[in-house]
Structures are given as structure tokens and as C-alpha cells.
Design brief:
single chain, 292 residues, alpha/beta, TIM Barrel, eight-stranded parallel barrel, 37% helix
Length: 292
């Protein structure tokens, strides 16, 4: 970590050079599936894993876990904000990997303005294309009672259109959301709410040709996935269930034709037993049939 800081002090130009020189790959391989490790939670102030509210507070620890994950067979790439991606880039960990840039991180967890989720990381498709990333991801929470929703929808639509113009993946993560009496935002995960969020997200932008969805595993997922023809990656969320139950739910969901893989962060990077490699290998076996 000290060497990374030294580079940032003396040679910040290496970041731009690294993006231009990075070895890239096709988005998907022969099986048409993806296993992406997510690490964009910290930029929204969401540091908790299970009962530990500061689990993701150490950048050194997070980078170490990401390095383990990205070296495992079957891991296609990573989703993160510029700061995390640039650390990994300078360490040479992004060679031949799919890299998705997280775009809107302005809806800080617990904030009064949480649902006005502005684009404060990668702000445009042009910024992503210039760095030769493979796509951009936008969190798109929909609360009919919060005026911030419409700004988020408009910005997400612009990003979808812009990314498509560059022939890059637009990864849209929609939720039907509500703010409780305590002021906290909650995502509604019943099937009907997820279906409504899918329908709205699918219509964002001037074209859906390059749009992928990032969705939670919920009840009646077979009915939920009938809501779209868009390729879908399933998210992990905060891992509160036992790992074996989580893996079983992923395995069943991956049998659906429109489900094309996983985008998982905390469940793989912070498994209960601390064995990141084993957790990632289990997910890779589910997605690609890769075993070590």
C-alpha cells in the first residue's frame, strides 16, 4: 500500500498510462456467462458486512481480498469505483479482466438525499470509454414518494444511451424502494416489486441493445425473470444467510435462461470462515463449472 501511495505522489500519470496499456478481453467467453466481483460499496458509505459495521473500512484489507479473488480460475472481472480500480490497475491485477466502472455513488447510505443518487464516480459513458473499461453500472432505486428518483432515472437513461453508443455494457441495478418512518431506505424484494423495477429499468435509454440487469435473488425468481429478455447477473447483497443456502439459491437461479452469472462482493470477499479463495471457487463452479 505504501508503494501505491508513492506512485500516486510521484507518478500519477501512470494511472492513465495503465488504462491505455491494459490487456483487455471479450466481454463473455464461449459459455456466455460472467462472474464479477463487486467492490463499489465503500464509496457510498456502505461498509458493513453482517454485524461488523466497519468491515470494509480498511483499503489494504479490501485490496488483499480482491487480489485473491481476481487470481482464482473462473473470475471474469471486477466492478468498482475509480479509486479501487486504479489501485488494482497499478498492481497489475486487471490484465485480461472485464472491468465495470461504478457510476452513481452520490446516494450515500442513510443520507436524507440517498435516493437522489447522483453520478459522482464515473459520470459519463465517455469517461468509461476513454479508459477502455468494459461497461458502466448504475444503481437505480425507484421510490414513488421521493423526488430524487426522477433525477436518478434521467441520469441512468442518459448513461444507458451513452454506453450503447460506445458498444459498452450498461449494467442497471434497479430496486423498488421506500423510506420507512425511521428515515431509512429499504428495497422491497417481493416478486411483484422486483418485476416493476425490471420493467422500468428495461425501458431506460434510447436502446436496450447493450443493457444488462443486476438483480437480487428473490422468491418466485422464475416468474420474476419472465419480465425481461435482457441478460441478467444476480447480486449477492449483505450475506446474512448461511453460505450453503446462498450457494444453493444461486445454483437454482443460474438454471434460468436469462440469468447469465453473478456480481457478488461481500458474500465472496468476506465469507464467515475468512477463506476468500474457497468462496470464490464455489461461485466459479456454479457459474462456469470451473473447479480447482
Amino acid at each position: 500500500m505504501g508503494e501505491l501511495t508513492e506512485i500516486r505522489v510521484r507518478h500519477p500519470e501512470r494511472v492513465a498510462e495503465g488504462w491505455l496499456q491494459r490487456r483487455t478481453r471479450a466481454l463473455v467467453g464461449d459459455d456466455g456467462r460472467l462472474l464479477i466481483v463487486a467492490a463499489d460499496h465503500p464509496a457510498r458509505g456502505a461498509l458493513g458486512v453482517r454485524g461488523d459495521r466497519m468491515a470494509m473500512g480498511s483499503r489494504a484489507d479490501l485490496i488483499a481480498r480482491l487480489l485473491i479473488a481476481l487470481q482464482r480460475p473462473g473470475v471474469d472481472g471486477v466492478l468498482a469505483t475509480p479509486d479501487v480500480l486504479e489501485d488494482l490497475l497499478l498492481l497489475g491485477a486487471l490484465e485480461g479482466k472485464v472491468v465495470i466502472g461504478s457510476m452513481n455513488r452520490g446516494g450515500l447510505q442513510g443520507a436524507a438525499f440517498e435516493l437522489d443518487d447522483r453520478f459522482t464516480a464515473y459520470r459519463s459513458a465517455d469517461e468509461i470509454a476513454t479508459r477502455r473499461l468494459d461497461g458502466g453500472k448504475m444503481l437505480t432505486r425507484i421510490d414513488l414518494g421521493d423526488p430524487g428518483t426522477v433525477a436518478t432515472l434521467e441520469s441512468s437513461a442518459a448513461a444507458v444511451t451513452g454506453l450503447a453508443e460506445h458498444k459498452l455494457m450498461a449494467m442497471v441495478e434497479p430496486f423498488w424502494s421506500t423510506r420507512g418512518e425511521d428515515g431509512r431506505v429499504a428495497n422491497l424484494l417481493d416478486p411483484d416489486s422486483v418485476i416493476k423495477s425490471i420493467q422500468i429499468a428495461s425501458g431506460l435509454g434510447a436502446t436496450s441493445a447493450y443493457t444488462w440487469l443486476k438483480l437480487p435473488v428473490v422468491d418466485e425468481l422464475d416468474r420474476v425473470m419472465e419480465a425481461t429478455t435482457l441478460p441478467t447477473l444476480l447480486l449477492g447483497g449483505d450475506p446474512t444467510a448461511e453460505p450453503e443456502a446462498t450457494y444453493a439459491s444461486w445454483g437454482k437461479a443460474l438454471e434460468l435462461p436469462s440469468v447469465r452469472g453473478l456480481v457478488v462482493g461481500r458474500a465472496l470477499l468476506f465469507p464467515p470462515d475468512g477463506d476468500v479463495a474457497a468462496a470464490v471457487d464455489h461461485a466459479a463452479a456454479l457459474v462456469h463449472g470451473v473447479t480447482t
